[in-house]
């Protein structure tokens, strides 16, 4: 028997989904078009989806002075790569003993990490620890260290290890004389590659998209990550536009430099790598989320 | 073996109770047996102690009048004065109301829309198209809040924004100064939240729907149940546990908010605070922009304590419903 929806219902649903899909990407399309719009056209008509004149001035402006952007890219890439590698390592090393039913101190260490989901000291003491105790103000490690271990990731990895690595296998390898570390590297790791990939992607995204730690710890312009550079550009430019009524004449003169389009071009340059990696990303992401929803 | 006997002897000589003489060596043996596993945990433990547990001692700051000369330890205790100041201001009420109400709206909207989208995606005839729509809807989730603030700015910019210049001008409406008019943001923020989160939200429900045994539907079909009836009487009841669990856990987090959404997309505009300031942004602004350690840490502790009981309570409820789904 056929239990599909009717042709009309299917058509209506498809139309709705097409509209929703368009709405999802429309803002990015707008930003892209603004970035290639001629500046005079913006001053005259504002931001438009169909501007009357195009210009690549914004991009040529950014690439002429590419030092700042290239540097921010470098910082972001460094933080993302190093941060992801270390965090996946630490998370898996923490999750694996918790997954072992025969590990005596399992509950104590589980409590130690999962309690942090319940209670924290708050922003102020945390800030003081990082700036006074660890002295990480204006250090690139302040962008890496705070996100090394998340209880949520440990929970996912622990659950996955429990599902895929049978205790009998570990027992057998022990009898064969394999040490714990060897079992972890040679047996658990190859069997659990999907979860390593998933957590790696979660962390890559978190590190790449992070601006909060920069906002708190970084004042040195040399250490600006891409996200933070973008934040600086929008918050400063907005300051101008919000106060423009006060100092009308001079600002319009000052704004002769295509500030609006440059900013939007920057946003696009910032989104770039995510768009390219996206098809690969989201497939694993969906897998990982389903994985995580089995528990927690 | 020899060392153990010696250990026992030493314990006897020292006149320790007989219970202890056996325990010490086994504890040590147990420790040695688990040496490698404990070593694996070590980096994580060090991280947790520094990043999470050390700051917990800092909650004393909320009960002190911190000055930079005396430092944290030397500054005088002021009891609950910081809290008195905080709750004497209108801010305390505003940030609590904003945090709870926005989260409430987000939870409700996300639930309804994500479930609806998941059911609709599952019904589409063309599975390839369904995959494509899902991918596109998931995309905004991958953007950082800074990028989102640019996208919002492109629409709401007062001078050039698409809403003012493109839409309002077309209908002859007056330009709106979006970043200084608080009344619009209770609609703008949920819109952004849904736009960014629906692709993520429907994944869990979609996987629950796909997991439903098709025999239920076949039986219903024989009984002549329409598609709508199948959704109401089979799909929704069968994914109800997932809905309930997700919602209760979200309610547990109702005192914590998405800092980026409230800080970045509003461009932290002070004029919007009446409808956009939440506890997290208040704590940040008090610390970084005003340098008011007392107020900031008092608000932070207020959030932490209420949040603690909310998470614990919601988890308790989840445990009552389905033990396996509880986090703790």
Question: Could you write a compact summary of the structure shown?
Answer:
The complex is a heterodimer of chains A (296) and B (328). Chain A is mostly helical and 296 residues long. Chain A has helices spanning 7-35, 39-45, 57-64, 66-99, 106-118, 123-133, 141-144, 151-164, 167-175, 180-191, 193-209, 212-217, 226-242, 248-254, 259-293.
Mean pLDDT of chain B: 87
- Kindly state the mean pLDDT of chain A as a whole number? 85
Output the CATH homologous superfamily of the largest domain in chain B: MetI-like
Largest sheet of chain B, if any?
Answer: none
CATH architecture of the largest domain in chain B, by name, is Orthogonal Bundle
Major sheet details of chain A: none
CATH superfamily of chain A: MetI-like
**Portion in beta strands of chain A:** under 5%
Rg for CA atoms of chain B: 28 Å
What order do the SSEs of chain A take from the amino end to the carboxyl end, as H and E? HHHHHHHHHHHHHHH
The computed structural class of chain B is mainly alpha
Query: Which fold name fills CATH's third level, the topology of the largest domain in chain B?
Result: MetI-like fold
Low-confidence stretches of chain B: 1-16
Do you know the CATH architecture of chain A? Orthogonal Bundle
Radius of gyration of chain A: 25 Å
The CATH class of chain A is identified as Mainly Alpha
Structure classification of chain A: mainly alpha
Helix content of chain A: over 70%
Task: Give structural notes.
The complex is a heterodimer of chains A (296) and B (328). With 296 residues, chain A is mainly alpha-helical. Chain A has one domain (65-293): MetI-like (MetI-like fold, Orthogonal Bundle), CATH 1.10.3720. Helices cover 75% and strands 0% of the residues of chain A. Chain A contains 15 helices and no strands. Chain A has helices at residues 7-35, 39-45, 57-64, 66-99, 106-118, 123-133, 141-144, 151-164, 167-175, 180-191, 193-209, 212-217, 226-242, 248-254, 259-293. Chain B is mainly α. Chain B has 2 domains: 2-64, no CATH class; 81-325, MetI-like (MetI-like fold), CATH 1.10.3720. Chain B is built from 16 helices and no strands. In chain B, helix 10 crosses helix 12 and helix 12 (227-252) packs across helix 16. The longest helix of chain B has 34 residues, at 90-123. Chain B is flat. Mean pLDDT of chain B is 87; it is low at 1-16. Chains A and B meet through helix 1, helix 2, helix 4, helix 5 and helix 6 of A and helix 3, helix 6, helix 7, helix 8 and helix 9 of B.
């Amino acid at each position: 028997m056929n239990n599909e929806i009717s042709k009309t219902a299917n058509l209506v649903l498809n139309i709705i989904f097409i509209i929703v899909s368009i709405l999802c990407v429309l803002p990015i399309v707008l930003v892209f078009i603004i970035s290639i719009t001629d500046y005079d056209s913006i001053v005259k008509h504002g931001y438009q989806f169909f501007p009357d004149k195009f210009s690549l001035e914004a991009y040529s402006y950014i690439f002429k002075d590419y030092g700042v952007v290239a540097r921010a890219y470098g910082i972001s890439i460094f933080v993302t790569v190093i941060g992801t590698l270390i965090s996946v390592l630490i998370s898996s090393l923490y999750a694996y003993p918790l997954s072992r039913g025969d590990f005596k101190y399992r509950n104590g260490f589980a409590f130690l990490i999962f309690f942090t989901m319940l209670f924290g000291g708050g922003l102020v003491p945390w800030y003081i620890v990082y700036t006074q105790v660890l002295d990480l103000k204006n250090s690139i490690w302040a962008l890496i260290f705070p996100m090394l271990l998340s209880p949520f990731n440990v929970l996912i990895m622990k659950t996955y290890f429990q599902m895929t690595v049978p205790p009998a296998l570990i027992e057998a390898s022990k009898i064969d004389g394999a040490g714990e570390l060897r079992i972890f590297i040679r047996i658990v790791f190859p069997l659990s590659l999907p979860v390593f990939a998933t957590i790696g992607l979660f962390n890559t995204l978190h590190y790449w998209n992070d601006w909060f730690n920069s906002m708190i710890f970084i004042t040195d312009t040399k250490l600006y990550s891409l996200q933070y550079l973008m934040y600086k550009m929008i918050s400063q430019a907005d300051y101008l536009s919000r106060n423009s009524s006060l100092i009308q004449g001079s600002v319009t003169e000052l704004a002769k430099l295509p500030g609006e389009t440059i900013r939007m071009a920057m946003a696009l340059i910032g989104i770039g790598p995510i768009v390219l990696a996206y098809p690969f990303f989201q497939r694993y992401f969906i897998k990982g989320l389903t994985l995580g929803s089995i528990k927690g | 073996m020899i060392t153990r006997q010696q250990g026992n002897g030493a314990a006897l000589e020292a006149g320790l109770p007989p219970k202890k003489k056996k325990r010490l060596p086994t504890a040590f043996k147990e420790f040695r047996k688990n040496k490698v596993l404990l070593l694996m945990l070590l980096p994580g433990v060090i991280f947790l102690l520094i990043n999470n547990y050390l700051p917990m001692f800092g909650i004393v700051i909320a009960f002190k009048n911190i000055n930079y000369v005396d430092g944290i330890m030397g500054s005088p205790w002021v009891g609950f004065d910081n809290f008195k100041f905080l709750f004497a201001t209108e801010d305390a009420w505003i940030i609590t109301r904003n945090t709870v109400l926005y989260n409430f709206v987000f939870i409700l909207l996300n639930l309804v829309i994500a479930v609806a989208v998941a059911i609709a995606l599952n019904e589409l005839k063309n599975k390839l198209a369904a995959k494509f729509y899902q991918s596109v809807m998931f995309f905004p989730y991958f953007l950082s809040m800074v990028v989102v603030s640019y996208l919002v700015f492109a629409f709401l910019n007062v001078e050039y924004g698409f809403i003012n210049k493109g839409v309002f001008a077309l209908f002859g409406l007056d330009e709106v100064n979006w970043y200084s008019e608080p009344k619009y943001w209770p609609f703008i923020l949920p819109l952004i939240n849904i736009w960014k989160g629906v692709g993520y939200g429907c994944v869990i429900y979609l996987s629950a729907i796909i997991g439903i045994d098709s025999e239920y539907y076949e039986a219903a079909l024989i009984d002549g149940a329409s598609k709508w009836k199948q959704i109401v009487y089979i799909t929704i009841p069968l994914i109800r546990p997932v809905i309930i669990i997700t919602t209760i856990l979200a309610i547990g987090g109702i005192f914590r908010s998405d800092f980026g959404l409230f800080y970045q997309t509003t461009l932290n505009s002070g004029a919007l605070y009446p409808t956009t300031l939440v506890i997290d942004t208040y704590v940040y602004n008090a610390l970084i922009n005003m340098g008011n350690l007392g107020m900031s840490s008092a608000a932070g502790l207020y959030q932490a304590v209420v949040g603690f009981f909310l998470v614990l309570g919601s988890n308790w409820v989840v445990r009552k419903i389905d033990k396996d789904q509880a986090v703790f």
